[in-house]
Structures are given as C-alpha cells and as structure tokens.
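Q: How would the structure tokens look for this protein?
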Amino acid sequence: MKNRTTEGRVSLTDKVALIIATGLGVGYFPWAPGTVGSFLGILLILLLSRLKLIGGSRLLFHFLVVMMITGIGIWAASRAEIIFKRKDPPQVVVDEIVGQLLTFGLIFRNPRFVLLLMGFLFFRLFDIIKPFPIRRLERVPVGFGIVLDDLAAGFYASLIIFAVHLYWPI
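A: Here is the predicted structure in token form.
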C-alpha cells in the first residue's frame, strides 16, 4: 500500500502523522522547535492537571496518556523521518511533548510554577546534553530512537523534580 500518490502529494495518513509528529505544527517554528514543543508539553500538563480525578486514578490516567502519546508518537515520528528524508528531523516535537509529560508524572496534581519551570529546564538540559544512556537510546532505529531518548531525559528530570517536591516544599 502506497502512502504517497505518484504526483508527489502527501497522503492523508502522512498528513495525520505530520500533525502529530510536529505537535500540531509547532515543530515548524523557526527557532528552537524542541523548546517550543516542550512548552506545548507544559500546556498539556496544566490542562491534564485540572481534571477532577482522585488518588491513584490521577496517576494512572497520567501514565496512560504518556503511554498513548508515546505509541502514537513513535508511529508519527517514524513516518516523519520518511517524509522529511532525514533521521530525527527537527520538526518532530512529539518526543519533547511526551518527555515533558513524563517529567511531571509523579507530581501531576496542580504543579506550581517554580516546579514547572524547573522541570522544563531540567528536561531541556538532559535532552540537550544527553547523559548516559540517552545518547545510545537516540540511535535506536526509526521513531523509537526519536521518542526513547526524550523519555529517558524526562525520567531523569522527573527524579530531580520529585526530590525537590518532597524535600523542598514550594
């Protein structure tokens, strides 16, 4: 089954993949699209944190959202690599969105501005410097590598944010 027509037009499947992979188009931002994608992740966290869920259902729902976006994001990022004819194209920001969501997985309920800012900055730092094993995860083929390295950066950032949340009540 072909995903593109012979005239070079992008198929509906590819259009959907690009909408998802580019975070509703924010990946086309001319400067620092990954940072803009991370900011979109923060907006999604704020939206999700307002849901009226109680106890463990809040945490479960948050991780289900992370898993769902991860799965769809891997598919969309894989398609985007083919469409852009480039490994890990800068326009793909769904990985930043899901990594940022994971950053706040343990303090999902009503995160304060200072924690949001710290999580945003720590996530971006780990995503840019790529400490072990993030650089290796980036090399995993297709969309898996695009998304897995940001999930690892989000995990590292979540550990710091969780510790700050526990030991330094803001």
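Residues 1-7 have pLDDT under 50 and may be disordered.

The chain is about 70% helix and 0% strand.

Upvote if useful.
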